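Objective 1b of the project was to move from sequence-level analysis to a structural picture of ligand recognition. The entry below was assembled by the postdoctoral researcher (A.K.) and checked by the PI before modelling. It contains the amino acid sequence of the target and the SMILES of the bound compound, adenosine-5'-diphosphate.
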Amino acid sequence: MSGAVGFLVFFLTYAVVYGILALGLNIQWGFTGLVNFGVAGFFAVGAYIAAFMTGTPSPYHLGGFGLPFPVGLLIAMGVSGIFALILGFPVIRLREDYLAIVTIGFAEIVRLIIVTEKNITKGPYGMGVIKPYKDLVPASYYSLLYLGIALLVLAILYVAMERAVRSPWGRALRTLREDERVAIAFGKNVNSFKLQVLVLGSMIFGLAGAVFGHFFNFITPNHFLPMETFLVWVMVMAGGSGNNIGVLLGALAVRGLWEGMMFLSDVLPRGIQIGAIRLAVIGLLLVLVVMVKPEGILGEKKTASDILGE
Amino acid sequence: MLEVIGLQKSFGGIRAVNGCTFEVERNTITGLIGPNGAGKTTVFNLISGFFSPDGGKIVLSGSRIDQLPAHRVPHLRLARTFQITRELSKMTVIDNLMVAPLDQMGETLFNSWFRIPSVKRQERKIREKALQVLEFLEIPDLKDEYASNLSGGQKKLLEFGRTMMTDPEIILLDEPGAGVNPTLMKKLNGYIERLRTDEGVTFFLIEHDMDLVMKLCDPIIVMNEGKVLAQGTAREIQENRKVLDAYLGG
Amino acid sequence: MQLIVNGILMGAIISIGAVGLTLVSRILHFFYFGYAAMLVYGAYLTMTLFNDVGLPLLPSVLISLPLLSLLAILIDKITFKNLRERGTGPFGMMVVGIGLELFLRSSVRLLWGSDVMRYDLPIRRAIVFPFNVRITPNQLVIISAAFALMILLHVFLDQTKIGKAMRATADNIDLARVRGIDTERVITWTWVIASISAGFAGFFLALDTRLVPIMGWKLLLPLFAAVILGGVGNPYGALAGGMIIGISQEVSAGFITPTYKPAVAFVIMTITLLIKPSGLFGRGGQG
Ligand SMILES: Nc1ncnc2c1ncn2[C@@H]1O[C@H](COP(=O)(O)OP(=O)(O)O)[C@@H](O)[C@H]1O
Ligand SMILES: [Mg+2]
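Corresponding predicted holo structure:
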């Protein structure tokens, strides 16, 4: 494949990974109003777990158990879900701003563990992740194949999420987002719903981590900085919380902006760091979204549950 | 039907409810009146489980409910409204109603993925019922309006309709008439009367409009400073000196 | 012993920073992540004045503070004041605060570069105290200056009119408004105090270690832990909370891998939130 096409495939695969993350955050924040600033933590858990599960045995890190790629994805999701359950069980009833701080702290600690426990994760050196189904196509077409796989995962997830939120279950989530006391007055177990959503969303972050790892084939703690969390927040808030298509478009646009800024390095004077510019732009976007367009580009659909298709 | 015995609740130093004892008989429209700050709303919040009492007992249809988590109370067929309306503003009127029924099977993730036909069947019934409620309240045209676009009175109606969605045996109404114009108020009275006679629903309501309370409610409970001051028919209350003192003095 | 002394040092730095953060959290009604950038700006401005302009160290710090206050008040006027008038909730404010943190931190990288830097001071040897406790002269300066600052802050909050108004506002915003306190003026002063607090904390931290753009973010978790432990809005609680967090973090290094120090702050904070969200010394409970 030529350079331009290769870059496009790379870019799209990256966007798909973030699309998965955005769908996960949308179920938490967009539909339920549940604050999770620990996205990067679950993302990391998923990536490392999938790497352990599918990798070849190594004395330098945990695993590899040589399991098939889909099994790795499922286990990555499961373990992320368990992390979410352990974290969420005590803290789910906290007020949203406390929850924000606790989840951000959680993600930082996950990263600390990855950096510190070198025997398990190879620490800051990072570890390799296999390319699944590598022998199916010639090497030069592999990235295209993997884009297809990632898109398939995204599509399945999208359908499942739409089904979930356009049901009475999703309507209950919207209710507790709008007014917890109303939800309680009509018999909804608010903490249970929130915990379900924390776990489900975090499983999706874990899935994204696994898809990311097999795409990048190399993961280090630096792939899971707090900034990743806020990148996803920008995608969801700008794209339109509560609208799955909106947040996918948000993911595509923000990723596009991110990669696009690389071309700035040709224009900008030498010595200006593109990383700093990117971070500044993401920060500015967060400020602007809240100040200018808090409901995002695409609003939420009017009808909560459309299971009857009317 | 509903028994409250020696109920106590303080906030910091304020004894909002201070040894309240009364009973709401089945199939009555029982009124709860008293000056501002008497503790009426707090009593409602205690009954519906939003606050847990510092002391005393609450018995609903024979079972104690004062230690139940708030989301369990509606399952004992008690529904409530709020003094300041709490409409789900970014949801449509019909969604505001359809979310109310208890034990919807579609409210579990598993069912909404894998048991779509049965969920649909139940959802169809719930929708039917919501439409009936809107018909009953004479606002069928508002079905697809966002709740935030309703007028104050319409929001009160919506809250009332929401309680009807759960097939309750007892409905607690916190100032249903506040901010509602007289015409609509008259209608609301009619709905309350009809639900009581046709469906056997018990009502327990807080109201400030004395004319209304005297006409609609029997018996009437008067609260002052966290205690029950008097209890009786409209006439008895009107003639009660202590009640007059409380209203004039407070 | 050494660990306890290290803990007191770290505690002094966290305490000084936490006072400003607790007042901002309470009076502005949200948790301000951009506070981390204020620390960093304080440290870097001081560095420019000291290393590049060539002022003595103390004037460098003292001149950096009004600059920092000006920056903070300007940012407030552009962003938070608008949001206050529109009635944006604490969460929206918090997101804006995070955006500002990312933006300001990158601006430090663009203005000063990402390399590790330090103040141009002669490196002096640690003084050895009984029990083989080693303290560098810089650390002695930090600890004594921090305690002097605490006393000054106490005098300000306890004796001056605006200090009292700030504490009243932190206690109960609605009541303060009813009593005719000009809350916008109190907010301006809150940014001044926050700048002093953040500026010194940033300077101390940089003096003890070195300057990197990420240093503020790394201190943020211990700072929030101190604020929550002390009760949000309680400046004395923040001082005590800061000491407890600092000492626990350093002493824990005797038992567990030192990289896990931030985890100690996290655990203490989470337990506080679960058991007593109003903090050890009450008054808090609302951000
Ligand atoms: N959540 C609460 N926190 C603190 N005080 C409260 C709370 N709810 C009610 N109160 C206080 O309890 C007293 C009774 O209030 P309320 O029950 O609302 O009175 P009423 O509905 O009869 O006007 C008042 O003094 C009120 O300020
Ligand atoms: Mg009331």
